[in-house]
Amino acid sequence: MSSLLPSSSSPMNTNMNSGGGGTLQRSSVNNAAADALRKKMQQLRDELELVKDDLERSRKDFEKERHARELAESEVSQLTRKLHSFEEQLERTEERLIQTANKLEEASHTADERERTRKMLENQLNLGSDRTEILEIQLKEARALATESDKKYDEVARKLLIQENELEKAEDRAKRSEM
Question: Low complexity bias located where (predicted)?
């Protein structure tokens, strides 16, 4: 920076000093210009530092935002994979639900058929029980009739035997009387 400002030993300054009274004026103008130039350079340096600081902050903000974006993209990717996995799991679960519902419907139909069969067999059993009761009554009546018939048969057989005996006796008497 000092190379930009004329030094007191430079040829320009020596020419000014040799001129007399105007030299002092020129020297103070030069000093004022140099001071103004130094101030301006300092301002530019300060502005440059501020711009560098802003640039560094902006770079850091950019890095943070880039990192946050990468994290967000990674999270979105993970969530997308999870969502896809959940969708597949939901699809498999829905398929199993449909299969289970079909099996339940088949089981319900089978149970209904078995219930109808049970009722039919129960009705047949009730009819069979009624028939059995009727047959038992008829059997008792038949036994009673058979017992009655046996008694009548025995009575008739006894009477027949008595009459056969009487017939034999009558034949014997008739033979004896013929003789």
Answer: 1-17
What pLDDT is attached to residue 174? 86
Average pLDDT over residues 28-38: 89
CA distance 26 to 14: 12
CA–CA separation, 156 vs 103, rounded Å?
Answer: 75
- Helix ranges (DSSP H) in the chain: 11-18, 21-178
Q: Which residue, chain included where needed, has tokens 């140099």?
A: 34
| 151 within 8 A of 143, measured Cβ to Cβ | no
For residue 72, the model assigns a pLDDT of: 96
Q: Report pLDDT for 21.
A: 53
CA distance 116 to 29: 124
Q: Which two tokens stand for residue 142?
A: 């038949």
Distance between CA atoms of residues 90 and 96, nearest Å: 10
What is the predicted pLDDT for the residue at 110? Answer: 96
Amino acid at 129: S
pTM attached to this predicted model: 0.41
Q: Give, in order, the Cα–Cα distances in Å from 79 to each of 32, 83, 86, 143.
A: 68, 6, 10, 91
